[in-house]
Queue: 2 jobs
Job 1
Amino acid sequence: MLDLNFVRDNLPLVEEKLRQRGMNPAEVLKDFRTIDGERRQAITAAETLQARRNRASEEIAKLKKSGQDASAQISETKELREQIQECEKKAAETDARLREVLTALPNLQHASVPLGTGAEQNVETRRWGAPPKFDFTPRPHWELGEQLGVLDLERATKLTGARFAVYWGLGARLERALANFMLDLHTREHGYTEVLPPYLVNSESMYGTGQLPKFAQDLFRVPHGEKDLWLIPTAEVPVTNLYRDEVLDGARLPICLTAYTPCFRSEAGSYGKDVRGIIRQHQFQKVELVKFAHPDNSYDELEKLTRNAEAVLQKLGIHYRTVTLCTGDMGPSSAKTYDIEVWLPGQQLFREISSCSNFEAFQARRANIRFRPEGKGKTEFVHTLNGSALAVGRTWVAIVENYQQADGSVRIPGALQSYMGTDRIPAGVLP
């Protein structure tokens, strides 16, 4: 969420930033000026009337003390109280309307974000490695997974429905090995602290990171008594909200956390996309990186976080590129986002495997996460960052497609062999 005073004082800038995102300022801001003006008028009127009521109350006390009649002043205070209540009601109504507008506003993108209307205008920042060369036609992971006997989409559909997967044998072990490898890398080499959060969160947590109210249709809601709980779409939600409504010691920043969790997404807006294989699932696993950073250093921390995520692919020896998302392709909460896209030879394309974002104070303001700078008494909002490091299922896909062999087997990257207890997934049949 953006600061009300900032929006009020910089409305032309906010409007321009919205246009750069491909949004119509009039539709997003609605009657911001009018609502804000009505709210301020109501507050001012209430304060003015309260001052009059206070003076009248003082006059009543004096009249009673001297034995004089104060009935006129008493009547006036009653009328003033009713008027004050009306003004306060008006202020509360306009405040709620103003909060709706602020809640719907996206973050303001950083000046370094390229302008564009969609993915075609994203800017490639760097590449690592090269595509593998095959003396045969490489196959997509859904064919390989079935022939290897490690991926079973048909039985998953029987159990639950479309966009779920069952992994068998070495396929299941590969998923587990990847998660352990990533957690070990980030905790032992990159300095993150591992945390295991709940997989169900309340609505306040979803609001804090920006999923609610805008993306409710993309979530799985679980009614629970008088309150709703939600299956987490990413570990970003519970991990960021660990410090909701808290004040952190500025000397502790940056706080770097990592978590491995399942993620649940209804994918309501993506029907018909990526229907084959396990690229876009309702349930998948992910290792997430989350940072709470000082505002002065948050963009340095974004670069480090992105490099930490890239290190996973480098150690696995998988070709990838990193792109800076343009204004029209960024998520609404982000001020700047890098996408890491992995090469999938079975499909002959790059596919996103991680998004690394700096939200600046956008989430922290919603979740009320502050820090106290060293030597200062006044608190400030932290900057929050997060990134997938990595999406485990898509890394599984990348290994299967990039390390497939002519005999139908899949070679295991050296970095994973100690986790797997083998150097190869041999061809097989489904159980």
Job 2
Amino acid sequence: MSSSPLPDVHAPADLERVWRLLIEPLGFDSRQIFAIMLDRDGRVHPSIVNVTDCPAAPDGQMLVSLARSLRGVLDEADPDGSLALLWARPTHAGTRTSDIQWVRAITAVVQAHSLGEWPIHTADDSVLRVMSPDDLAA
């Protein structure tokens, strides 16, 4: 990551730019979740949460525990802020059914804990992309 400040996030394109600055070059050793906190003005908090070695299938209890922890941090830093999350895994195989399952599970827990409305991004060893509602409905 560059030592310069990250751009503010006001639109989905801004968020994708921030993710690129944070995680490129792409390449992952394990299945991971990344989370960044945005204050009410769209400024990115300087720390990033990275949960590594996630299981192959979504773990509801792990996600609820993560969401509760993140909600507590967000409440202390800026209750009107939000979180943005990214699901990453090692592969060049493109989006898999398990990715969609993870993004659906992450989306559900983000909504249940009022963590924000930002789209979930995914990344593998070659592609970073946003998961659209159409992707999740498939």
